[in-house]
Task: structure prediction
Amino acid sequence: MNDCIFCKIVAGELPAKVIHETDRVVAFQDIDPQAPVHVLVVPRRHIPTLHDMADEDGDLVGEIFQVARRVADKEGISESGYRTVFNCGGDGGQDVYHLHLHLLGGRRMAWPPG
Ligand code: AMP
Ligand code: ZN
Result:
């Protein structure tokens, strides 16, 4: 996907502050953080939305969450708590169509979300 900014970050063609990476997943700082800790966890493979994942991608979803847990430990928010969010599609508020899990922490989150 030539025009996908997250594919470019994964390929090292766009700068990002990478926090953690595995063979299949990369975690990097959000460019416009909404909390003291705001990290995006993305698969290296281009998948537009959560809804585009195949049934056999379940282990990839699991790995994305495992990386989010590692990042929460690294960033020191495991004890205080954090929020993980997949925005999916238009009504879900998704702006970048390369699957990403938001990891937010370092402040108390509001509920319900806006
Ligand atoms: P979403 O609205 O769920 O699609 O979230 C997209 C997120 O990507 C937003 O939080 C943006 O701030 C973030 N973002 C956009 N461009 C970049 C970039 N070049 N590097 C890091 N984060 C980005
Ligand atoms: Zn992509």
The longest helix spans residues 58-75. The pocket of adenosine monophosphate (ligand 1) is lined by residues 5, 14, 16, 30-32, 40, 87, 93-96 (CB under 6 Å).
